[in-house]
From TrEMBL:
<dbReference type="InterPro" id="IPR016169">
    <property type="entry name" value="FAD-bd_PCMH_sub2"/>
</dbReference>
<dbReference type="GO" id="GO:0071949">
    <property type="term" value="F:FAD binding"/>
</dbReference>
<dbReference type="InterPro" id="IPR015345">
    <property type="entry name" value="Cytokinin_DH_FAD/cytokin-bd"/>
</dbReference>
<dbReference type="InterPro" id="IPR016170">
    <property type="entry name" value="Cytok_DH_C_sf"/>
</dbReference>
<dbReference type="GO" id="GO:0009690">
    <property type="term" value="P:cytokinin metabolic process"/>
</dbReference>
<dbReference type="GO" id="GO:0019139">
    <property type="term" value="F:cytokinin dehydrogenase activity"/>
</dbReference>
<dbReference type="InterPro" id="IPR016164">
    <property type="entry name" value="FAD-linked_Oxase-like_C"/>
</dbReference>
<feature type="signal peptide">
    <location>
        <begin position="1"/>
        <end position="25"/>
    </location>
</feature>
<dbReference type="InterPro" id="IPR016167">
    <property type="entry name" value="FAD-bd_PCMH_sub1"/>
</dbReference>
<keyword id="KW-0274">FAD</keyword>
<dbReference type="InterPro" id="IPR036318">
    <property type="entry name" value="FAD-bd_PCMH-like_sf"/>
</dbReference>
<dbReference type="InterPro" id="IPR006094">
    <property type="entry name" value="Oxid_FAD_bind_N"/>
</dbReference>
<comment type="similarity">
    <text>Belongs to the oxygen-dependent FAD-linked oxidoreductase family.</text>
</comment>
<comment type="subunit">
    <text>Monomer.</text>
</comment>
<dbReference type="Pfam" id="PF01565">
    <property type="entry name" value="FAD_binding_4"/>
</dbReference>
<dbReference type="InterPro" id="IPR050432">
    <property type="entry name" value="FAD-linked_Oxidoreductases_BP"/>
</dbReference>
<dbReference type="InterPro" id="IPR006093">
    <property type="entry name" value="Oxy_OxRdtase_FAD_BS"/>
</dbReference>
């Protein structure tokens, strides 16, 4: 596919917010409720059909309120075990018109993955609740085996604390820890550790999965490998993850958290690439490498994603940063990194001091604009939570989030920065990003091509970039403006011939998914796996990838 055609892909993606969605084939609400009522006596699961339960289950983190009614399920199912979920899926399979079923963890998806229009949403958190008492953590650490078994409904923050109790920790994280294990593993799970360890889906030893046919299967690279590969990054299309075995390593105690400001994208990306390289003077210095785009008008809504215990900048620093941004035309770049040390890790504070001394001498940031804090390992990993709580307190969290997440080739990242960060976003946003904008590189070697997650085709370059434009539509008119901005970003990429792969993808039709997201080879494999593990297209129909009956 030509670069211009690939760019056009993104236009179709971002236009979907204003595109009429196709009708999703499903039985009537009454027939679905009648069928699943029979499960109440056969399982320990509970069923709710009231408006409060179904309204909550029809929304997600990215949802525009106008789409809620169209996504409303007939019922919400609260299972007590994987066997309850299996019974639900078998009931759907046995129906003359199989009803859709979707798993809902924290509802943090942005493209309908957790919705089941006219069907049943499975409240995964119920797996960790007792009917007659408090929640029970389905977390079991094997110190000898160096792994943790975590229920698919468990939050990553709880996985962290359970592992730390034994001096251990997972290696790969998502930036926001208050998401479910099953949720991030159905996408990819990326953050600043991915350059070294790959995404979270590349750091799984074993899964328990309930397939679309209602079969409970334990799978790994050695056992039922095709299902294992299908489910990881599979967008919830092949099965519900009820348990994941995550490898653990010795845990550090502290993090030296660094922020360096840059006046141009070339200096930032060049330094980021030196830090993630396998060889060179700076190889291995940092354990975490990300970056972001800053504007001179950035406030809480623009910086919530990375809140330290105390501000990185004094009032005097803030004034200097604003002046630097003005000199740079209204846009700055920030390299954000961390070095872990202490605890069970091999690195000492003295090692960190030496490494940072070399790094600060070598990197090309704006001199005088290096900021460092020393925090606990937990404070660093759970830093986004502080920003979330501030937004909740201000009434700014439960709003539409028209996010745009892209993977881009290294060869075009500077073209993208010039056209989007210094062009589209300043023109459309009036200088206000209205949410964090992330930009950082990852190494291709950490990604497993056998898994379902789609990442850029191999162009001979080890490095590719992720860009996350993570806006919040707070005021009247924001949503329309941001969707128009997404469209303009897409148009710029198409005109410039910049190939883009969408992370956390969302498309309006199966044809778009097949041609514009997966491509022929990947689509053929994805569709084959769907026919094998969910032949009635029961799972995650809200994404509009498959409908019942499946095409031959």
């Amino acid at each position: 596919m030509a670069a211009a055609e690939l760019g056009f892909v993104l236009i179709c993606v971002v236009l979907m917010a204003t595109t009429l969605r196709p009708t999703l084939a499903s039985p009537t609400t009454t027939s679905v409720v009648d069928q699943i009522r029979e499960l109440e006596g056969a399982t320990a699961g509970r069923i709710r059909t009231d408006a409060a339960a179904t309204a909550l289950a029809s929304t997600d983190f990215g949802t525009n309120a106008s789409s809620v009614d169209a996504a409303r399920p007939a019922a919400v199912f609260y299972p007590s075990s994987a066997a309850d979920i299996a019974a639900l899926l078998r009931a759907s399979s046995a129906s003359a018109s199989p009803f859709p079923v979707s798993a809902r963890g924290c509802g943090h998806s942005t493209g309908g993955q957790a919705t089941a229009p006219g069907g049943v949403v499975v409240d995964m958190a119920s797996l960790g609740r007792r009917a007659d008492g408090p929640s029970v953590a389905r977390l079991a650490v094997s110190v000898r085996g160096r792994y943790i078994d975590a229920g698919g409904e468990q939050l990553w923050v709880d996985v962290l604390h359970a592992a730390l109790a034994h001096g251990l920790t997972p290696r790969s994280w998502t930036d926001y820890l208050h998401l479910t294990v099953g949720g991030t593993l159905s996408n990819a799970g990326i953050s600043g550790q991915a350059f070294r360890h790959g995404p979270q889906i590349s750091n799984v030893l074993e899964l328990d999965v309930v397939t679309g046919t209602g079969e409970i299967v334990t799978c790994s690279k050695e056992k039922q490998a095709d299902l294992f590969d299908a489910v990881l990054g599979g967008l919830g299309q092949f099965g519900l993850i009820t348990r994941a075995r995550i490898p653990l390593v010795p845990a550090p105690a502290r993090a030296r958290w660094v922020r360096l400001l840059y006046a141009d994208a070339a200096a930032l990306t060049g330094d980021q690439e030196r830090l993630i390289a396998e060889r060179g003077a700076l190889a291995g210095v940092m354990d975490y490498v990300e970056g972001s785009v800053l504007t001179d008008s950035q406030g809480l809504i623009g910086s919530w994603r990375s809140q330290p215990p105390s501000s990185f900048f004094s009032e005097g620093d803030a004034a200097r940063v604003a002046a630097l941004a003005k000199e740079a035309g209204g846009v700055l770049y920030c390299l954000e990194g961390a070095v872990y040390y202490g605890g069970a890790a091999d690195t000492t504070a003295a090692d960190v001091d030496k490494g940072l001394e070399v790094m600060l001498r070598e990197l090309r940031y704006a001199r005088g604009f290096a900021f460092v804090q020393d925090v606990s390992y937990v404070e660093f990993l759970d830093r986004v939570r502080a920003g979330e709580l501030k937004l909740r307190a201000a009434g700014l969290w439960d709003v539409p989030h028209p996010w745009l997440n892209l993977f881009l080739p290294r060869s075009r990242i500077l073209d993208f920065a010039a056209g989007v960060f210094h062009g589209v976003m300043l023109r459309r946003g009036g200088g206000a990003m209205m949410g964090p904008v992330l930009v950082y590189p990852m190494n291709r070697r950490g990604w497993d091509g056998a898994l379902s997650a789609v990442f850029p085709e191999d162009d001979g370059d080890e490095v590719f970039y992720t860009v996350g434009i993570l806006r919040s539509a707070v005021a009247a008119g924001d949503l329309a403006r941001m969707e128009a901005q997404n469209t303009e970003v897409a148009r710029f990429c198409a005109d410039a011939g910049i190939p883009c792969t969408q992370y956390l993808p969302s498309y309006a039709t199966q044809a778009e998914w097949a041609a514009r997201h997966f491509g022929p080879g990947r689509w053929d494999r994805f569709a084959r796996r769907k026919r094998k593990y969910d032949p009635n297209a029961i799972l995650s129909r809200g994404q509009r990838i498959f409908s019942y009956p499946l095409a031959a």
